[in-house]
Amino acid sequence: MASPEDLSGQLAPLYEARKGVYPKAVNGPFRRFKWAIMAVTLAIYYGTPWIRWDRGPYAPDQAVLVDLANRRFYMFQIEIWPHEFYYVAGLLIMAGIGLFLVTSAVGRAWCGYACPQTVWTDLFQHVDRLIDGDRNAQVRLAKGPWGFEKIAKRALKYLIYLVIAFWTGGAWIMYFADAPTLTVDFWTGQAALVAYGTVAVLTATTFVLGGFLREQVCVYMCPWPRIQTAMMDEKSLLVTYKDWRGEPRGSVKKAQAHPGAFGDCVDCNQCVAVCPTGIDIREGPQIGCITCALCIDACDGVMKQVGRPRGLIDYCTLDDAATEKAGCTTQPIRKTLTRPRTLIYFGVWVAIGAAMLFSLGQRTRLDLAVQHERSPLYVQLSDGHVRNNYTLKLRNMETRPRSVVVTVSGLPGAAVWTEGGAREGAGKAVTLTLAPDSVTRLKLFIAAPGVGPVRQDFTISTRGRDGDPRGDSDIIQFDRPEAGQ
Amino acid sequence: MADVKQRIDEATGTSTVGHEWDGIEELDTPMPRWWLWTFYATIVWGLAYVVLYPAWPMVNRATEGVLGWSSRGDLEKEMAADVARRAPVMSAIAATPLADLPNKPELMQAAVQGGAAAFRVHCVQCHGAGGAGVKNLYPSLTDDDWLWGGDLASIQYTVTHGIRNPDHKATRTSLMPAFGRDGILDAAQIGDIVSFVRTISRQEKASASSARGATLFADNCAVCHGAGGEGGRQFGAPKLTDAIWLYGGDRDSLTATVNQPRNGVMPRWDNRLDPATIKMLSAYVYSLGGGEKGLAPATEGAVEGQGADGQP
After folding, report:
1. Considering CB atoms only, which of B32, B35, B305 is closest to A425?
2. Would the pTM count as exceeding 0.90?
3. Could you report the predicted ipTM of this complex, rounded to two decimals?
4. Closest by CA position to B31, among listed A18, A404, A181, A484
């Protein structure tokens, strides 16, 4: 840190180079937990498009498919149409509230374990260790001259980065088309240009963000740490260096020479060495801390070696820190987690999920939308009747052909027909065959006696004729000319 | 930088920029270097863009750019691509006789859609959006009352040759005499004819006037409008017994019509539109709801109306 006098005649640097971060390998329960989460999240990401799901002959057999071309979203047995996009909105709201819940309870757990940036950075850092060796070897190599070894190792490492990045970009497009077909098309040059473009962009971003920018994404680019900072309270779990226990720092030797003069921290710097974002947790909570808890693993290992109790660095709330500092007993973690704030978040989260599940179970797969034609609003027929025209949109959202009937009620003397010149065959109902998984647009003509209310509400409804009588109906208006017209 | 009080902020160890607003100071945190590289990359991008694409505004137009791209060119390409996309359907419509169109539901649908587009360009000025017509001026094309016939072939003929085109032989034509203006009938006689017409269209009860009118009608009108007023399509003579009146069915309007008929005109389109477009227009007008089955179009496979007594 420069003193104020140093400022005279010198300017602060305009740009700051990234300080290299070479995290040391560590083992411990949190590291193993991170391994498990990495395995699960990567397996989900790379593997999901390859799961098959039989939906019969009229729909794709990919379990999770965002079919943009045909505007369908398949997720196992759920099929979502564009007009049902509120389910996706609901999922996003649930994801948001889920993040609130997690943040209020366990702080930046998302950042530390599940965020893609964290997972891929972690993966790339393992590649670093695999090729360059552990922390010290990495530092040596970075500082060393560009010789054959360095060039070879860098080339190999970047090649592995590139393979991972390409695989990551390639997996993404599999969600948007039949994965086996797209894979073949991709390698034979038959895939759409947008597929190649997407893979290229995602390969580049994965390569750069995971291989080089890493913690800078969290510190400079990502808004989420800032939002989280505002959302955490004194009861949220944080990775905390218990300075009241650790300070003043001193080596084991010093502590033996002066019993009672030093705290538990032996100043071994292991917490700094293992940190994937290169911070010193002992400086207190900071934006760079993603609470991955690897420093807890490192510190616990050291404490075990020197025969001191674990938890010098540990998950701890601000409230508990104050209590512990004062020498009192903290409340059990179960109580910290189940406080009104977390329970309300959880309640809202569950309520939205339950509401979505309920409406998923209730939704009709035969949908009717009616539009009253406005020009002309009504047509005077030569026999004194009045005709109104309607545009019907019948959605058959099942993956089988349907036979349905369209009926009219609440309009006395009404006759309906669907084809320009077919009034002779008009009746009270129209039967239709709907193609599977399709929208049928239909012009419906309805004639009714010319004497009646100028505007009359009536109902057009549709229902299945093939065993499933559920359907849909719309209340719509029938117009007649006003008297004197 | 006279009153600048740059100092090192203790908590962060970073220099301040030296300004202060009510005790609030700004840290002079250096930018990360990758940001600087990103900035350079955008400059390179910008320079390349200026070279490749239209960029500098000149007097008449911008510099062209070495790629020669223009939004107008883009539009032309898109239009050409769309013409190419529609070409198979268009040639199929051109090759199919109009009478066969209803037997090919997909082709018929394409024709109706194409006709709707053409209608919006060439026909709405008079016949109105959706073919609703304009009261007292232009007939509605959506009802079931036709002056010259509402089957596909008749509509096609009308669109092709127009109505009362003086310079065209094949045009549909007729001339209702101006009974009042030209002194063929006097006002009382016209009143009697109007009474009769309003009687056969069930707007008035029979009276002495209508009885006199019946004789006058038989002498003057029946040759075109038919003995019972049922109309005559070969002359474009409207049916007088129904509820549809282009120029009004009340006494005043009818009197005015008999006095001085309008004899409306419609342009011929064979010299402006190609036969395929006329075919599509005919299909569209036919589909509006009043189309007549002069050619017995087959029912669509998927869509069939039930009989009046049919139960679902």
Report:
1. B305
2. no
3. 0.75
4. A18
